[in-house]
Records
---
Amino acid sequence: MASKAGGVAVDFARIYKSLGLGKETIAALQAFRKRNTEAKRLASHYASQPTTVDLEHYRSVLKNKAVVDEAEKVLKEFKPVTYDVNSHLKAIETFETKAVEKAKETEQAVDRELKELRATLANIEEARPFDQLTVEDVGNAHPRIIEAVATMVSKGKWTVPGYKEKFGDLNVL
Amino acid sequence: MPQLIPFFFFNQLLFSFIILFSIVYIFSKYILPLFTFQQVVRIYITKLSKKN
């Protein structure tokens, strides 16, 4: 459904589906749309109402003319109260900046995630089968092994317990 | 002067010691730890694959 306002059409169905927004954002968007349509409906409703009062009609109908005169006087003296909408505008602006900030944050988070995913994908694609694995690969994957070997060697421990039993011994002597 | 003949071997002696110590250093620092590293890695990956 596309709602048109001021010549700008917003395809909400596309926004809901294709952008992959969070539940919270979609709910907020829907609430905003609801408010917008409600406001539009009310505006059109009130715009179609008559704004003038036919005082002559009341004069001809009512016996008490003084009341009608008084009503006319009040009506002429009536001035619409001017509202200060600046505070509302300010609130809207802060909301907008907040929304923009949040959107930027989300964009950055998505970018970061995408980069990580790409790195993972490259890792998977470039991975070698197990039988082609080298000792260096294992060391690079787990630097803690290299550290452990360094401490072992510095303590004069050159053999691993349980290695001979498992893999045998090629020593002649 | 025959009594000086042993000193002619000083050269050989000096170089053999230099080479010996450098070989010991290179082996203990760079080559032999690789064997320990290999053993540790072998034990590690067999332990990893033995989990089933």
---
Amino acid sequence: MCIRNIVFWSVLKPWAAVIMTLLPAFVAYAAVPDADTASVCIDAASVYGSRPLIAAGMHRTPFDSLALKENISLSFADILSYNSSVFVKQYGRATQSTVSFRGTSASHTQVLWNGMKLNSPMLGMTDFSMIPAFLTDSAELLHGSSSLQAVSGGLGGAVLLHTEPRKEDGFSMQFVQGFGSFLTVDDFLRLDYGHKRFHASLRAVFSYSPNRFRYTNMDKKENVYDDEMNIISSYHPVEYNENGKFRDYHILFESGYETEAGDRFSLSVWHLGSYRQLPKLTVDYSDPGDFINEQNEVTTRAVASWRRSFGNLDLSAHAGYANTDFRYDYAFDAGNGNWSQMTHSRSRTHTVFLKGGVLWRFADRWIFRADIAAHHYIVRSEEDVSRQGYDISRTDADLFVSLSWKPVERVGLSLSVREEVAGKRVSLPVPVFNADFLAWKAAGLYLKCSASRNYRYPTLNDMYFLPGGNPDLRPETGFSYDAGWSFSKKWKTVSLSAEGAWFDSRIKDWILWLPYGPRKNFYTPLNLLEVHAYGVEQKADFSWKPAGEWQLRFGGNFTWSPSRNISGTGLKGDTSAGKQLVYVPEYSSSVMASLAFRSWKLLYKWCWYSTRYVMSSNESGPSGSVPPYFMNDLTLSRGLDFRWADISLSLAVKNLFNESYVTVLSRPMPGINFEFFIGITPKWK
Amino acid sequence: MKEQNPGTEDGTFSPVQGQSLFVVNEGSFGSGNSSLSCYDAVSQTVTNGVFSMANGVPLGDTGQSMTIHGDNGWVVVNNSKIIFAVGLSDMKEKGRITGLTSPRNIAFVSDTKAYVTDLYDTKITIVNPQTYQVTGWIETEASTEQMIISDGYMYVNCWSYGTEILKIDLASDAIVKRIKVGIQPCSMALDSQNRLWVLTDGGGWEGNPAGYESPGMSRIDLSTGEVDAEWKFDDYTSVSDLTVSHDGNTLYWLRSGVCKMDINATDLPSEPLIPNSSGQTFYSLTVSPSDGDIYVGDAIDYSQNGKVYRYSADGTLKSEFSVGICPGAFCWY
């Protein structure tokens, strides 16, 4: 974080908040009331104005094609960083990327892939760096209590990911080759085939990089000694990011078939293999050749679905299976070519998923919806050196019933109840209430609100890990409400949309892992904290086509999310009560702007995060906090249209201004870096 | 209680010999925010971050222990895999020892030889403190922890998954005897009658590769090298940090508070001298060599600055002061 940016932002921050808050209101005021419907769509943009009854009062952020496809090498962690109010905690490409949604922890964001949970049943969280954007065709965020429309346990919210084959008939292919800084290689292949009612798609992703970038290590000094071993000078060394290599591959197969009677069948199979080294800390003085510190993951997921509409009745059924083999090795060179294991951890997870749903428009302005879903987990976790781990299975199930009603044209109401079972535990029914009101039809201005209870059951590690697992843990319980508005308007050449919300959530029995046992050498989870997470989310999108071949787009997010530990731990001397949670920024913002002319496109992305505290007592200083930082990326791309193929060329520049920054304490980050992509889409016809 | 703020690079902190207590704060594992504090027991002032203040860089990840030899303090930083030698006059770095796997403690045999124990490497590393070079290894076949010198021998406890005390000839660097004690001997203390007291934590959990039993205390007569007395605690409450008063006549350790026992007692105390019933997280312990005051490190929630409580020898709280994250070890100067 350079000084000029600190000064700049200290001036800018209050104004940014005001601008992001007032802009949508100004837009609503300035709108010309020429539309006779509130269901306004914007080209390739988020759809805010469209408010089907089933989504009444929901606060959701869909990701458009521009966000998902602007840089083919992005992971979903990058998508979230630049296009949403979610904070992503990561330290470089191909490193574990977890999220904080509305000030909650990583395990409070539920992630569904084609309806099946991606959250690790062991840890509760999802590593978004393992989800390439190339494999995602559509996605949306459900904020806070809106997540209960899809899944329980999302105290912060939920991320829904979908894949689908292209619907065109015939055979098509797309191949993209990327070469980047630090010897990075990315390959992307997509094959599609369609014939009448059958469509199939095969996608493959391969990414490799030694990821050995140079940086000046300000956390170390190298000494210069004289002949008598006296230090005569010292300097901050220029080092490489050692042990940061990664090699990931993904294969996604999809197919779909629709019968003449209207039955729609689909199958999605996703296989991934990931080898990743864990980079050294900036304060690690060892020779990287003396240690192995790496993880391997092989995961296969498959979901089969059936859907059918019978007039006013929609039925669906889904079945899925996932298998993850995860290995972590930490070893040192014991000499003579032998490696001695310090940690030799293996875990295998099997997940079986079943879901059925019904949606019934049983009367004019009434919708009844019910889902029943079950995930059965089988987990075997073992660490050979210390013999830690467990072997357990558990079935989690939930039943969801919802009734939506539109009493008058401008009002949508929805009352839902979700009932969850985790193993032998049964939660109290979770009620959800959503409402929206079309306040200004011509401007597409909606007011909306929601309120709910929510639960998150302890993960399998929380309850069963040996040593330390605590089978007596209570589920975390939350009460959330939010209120907001959304606006969407389109003129002849201009589209505007905006959305804002106030949210407030109180979570009791927040689970915290604390050292335990002799010499405190293992951890145990306890229901210790009460957390109050609240704040404001603002989002605005603007699109303008000033002339036939020009298009300008702008999108911005601003989030203020205090997330306070209001109870403290109750331990003597604890000063964490009232403080912001660790690694949750109070402020964050992102901007994405693109300018397209004919086949050229320039995309600029910017994001900013305020201070993240490392210590629960919110101490400032280098040991207790990570400084705020800006990040700027730029992508220039061009498409070339030949008779035989479409060619795409793209140059992505990351960390445009070569900022020196960290996102996690003692983890180095790369300076300015580049990646060039060339893509080909042959024209078979 | 006066507290000073950590200074900046090229600060001028200088500890006062005979009244200074260094506190090694582990920090949060993997965060690189370990630190070193120094408390003046006479003026009752504490200075935090003395290493970074003097050297302009953080101490590293998981500071483990500190030992004083000659004019230098030797700070072992476990997960940074380094030992810093710092001059006690100004706390500036004099040199460093690297090439270690997971160092825990350093003990000095002479000005040119020191032993370094290791959590994961089943070898004790021999180093030359004058050249900061590794000069050899002692194969131990076990993880090693604390070291105590007596009559030409080094006694080393094998804590992690171990059950033995090693007796090493300082002249030959050879293990001459392995003394069997309870499961996971976590700390040792040498009393005034040349007896080595060993606290065993019992393994901590069912399934520990070393076994699982209630914690206990063993006493080894160093003249014979045999265990001459053993006690078991009534339950599985965790124990740690056995230490001895300066005169070698009183033992202290942590178990639901601070326990105290005369070396001639026949039974373990039934109640702690200082119970931690008020919600403290006692994590480390030392006894002042000058006045017998008891200092207890409190890690609180392990992710905020910890505290050190100072008690008189009879267990009366005298004062408290804030230090860095997770105060895990002490060193008197």
